[in-house]
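DM from R.C. (forwarded with permission)

"hey, sorry to bug you on a friday — could you get me a structure for this? deadline for the figure draft is monday and I only need the backbone to look sensible"
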Amino acid sequence: MQNKKDLTKTRILWTTLAWIGGLALIFIIWTILSATVYKDTNKLPDIGKCFVTFGQTLSEPNAWAAIGIAWGQTLACFIGSFLLAISLVLLSRYWKFVSYIMMPFVTLARAFPTQVLMMLIVVFLVTVKPLVPITVAFFIIFPMAYEGINNAVNNVNKNNIEMMNVFHVSKWEQFKSMYVPSTLPYIFSAMVAAFGLTFKITIASQFLQFVSPDMDPSPGYQSIGAFLGVAWNKGLYDVIIAWGMIAIMISLVMELIIKEIGRLCMPSKYNDRKIISNIFKHKVKEHA
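My reply, with the result:
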């Protein structure tokens, strides 16, 4: 019978092989389509040409400036959304009316059409171009972050909380020893899913800024959306795909970083039984 370590290695091996197989299948389909259906239109360039363009794009200083701007806007929205969501969820634990105030806002923001939201924000923030992607992404990501964190807090073991109240454990101790370790897995899972979406929305907002008749694509404001707009107008589909590959690469790297931070923040000692045991031991020592 295989031990746990061998089973883990086997699972990692098969996962890696499946991932490589899926990627190879994508490349095969891509090659077939580019050589048959899109051969005359050149709307789907062959893989080799796209990878060459990918390398050329990364060699341009302006491209790195655009990547830095998009990454900074994404990070600003991402961190701001989660910090605000965490703060409001914590406030709603002590003041219930906060959750009632947030309910209509979260519901409307989640249901509002993304394209309409983008258009409205582009119109209202036409003179503050760098804030447009941040604002659009915030209105889309914040409701997801708030609901995810709120659900995580609501799923904390109620019996443990009642036991803590019986033993007069302080609110700060409950937050530090129960709510934080219990909700961290859900929060980091939401972060992993949200970052890629935030980055995509940021780039889409930049592109909408470029194609909007009210926007002046100033050369001082480099953006991935502007590069995509130029490529779209000129029919440079290999450039569009190359930027898509760059966006995928950045999203994957950031997701790996978030997962690693989450792994470091959630050591194996975080489980309900040990948490309750440690708190009660601490209380016994206090009364001894």
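R.C.: lifesaver. The CA atoms of residues 74 and 80 lie 10 Å apart.
me: no worries. The longest helix spans residues 171-211.
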